[in-house]
C-alpha cells in the first residue's frame, strides 16, 4: 500500500479587500483540495478580525504610514494542502497575491491518526 501524501495546514491573514483574490490564488496552486471520493475543492475556514502593525523606518507599507500604528479589518484563513509541493506552491501564490510586503502566514505539518 502506498503511503499517503503528507498534509499541511496553511494559515494566513489578509485584508478583506484582498480576500477573494488571495484565496483564488492559493486554490489555483492546489490548496483546499481534500483527497477522497467527494472531490472537494476550494475548502477553507475564514474568520474576520482586526490586525495591527506599525511599519518600521525602512517599510513601504500597502496601508498606513511609517511609524504609525495601523489597525485593519483582516481575515484569517485556514486551508489544507496535500503534499509538500502543493503547500510550497500555495505559499508562493499567497506571497504574489497578497498586498503586504510581509504577509503573515504559518504552515503546520499535520499528523495522520
UniProtKB/TrEMBL annotation:
InterPro entries: DUF34/NIF3_sf, N-reg_PII/ATP_PRibTrfase_C. Coiled coil: none annotated. Transmembrane segments: none annotated. Signal peptide: none annotated. It comes from the Eukaryota. This is ATP phosphoribosyltransferase. It comes from Coniochaeta ligniaria NRRL 30616.
Amino acid at each position: 500500500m502506498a503511503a499517503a501524501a503528507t498534509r499541511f495546514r496553511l494559515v494566513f491573514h489578509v485584508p478583506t479587500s484582498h480576500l477573494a483574490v488571495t484565496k483564488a490564488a492559493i486554490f489555483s496552486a492546489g490548496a483546499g483540495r481534500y483527497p477522497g471520493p467527494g472531490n472537494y475543492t476550494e475548502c477553507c475556514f475564514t474568520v474576520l478580525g482586526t490586525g495591527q502593525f506599525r511599519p518600521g523606518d525602512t517599510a513601504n507599507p500597502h496601508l498606513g504610514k511609517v511609524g504609525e500604528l495601523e489597525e485593519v479589518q483582516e481575515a484569517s484563513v485556514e486551508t489544507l494542502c496535500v503534499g509538500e509541493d502543493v503547500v510550497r506552491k500555495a505559499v508562493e501564490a499567497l506571497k504574489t497575491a497578497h498586498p503586504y510586503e510581509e504577509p503573515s502566514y504559518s504552515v503546520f505539518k499535520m499528523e495522520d491518526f
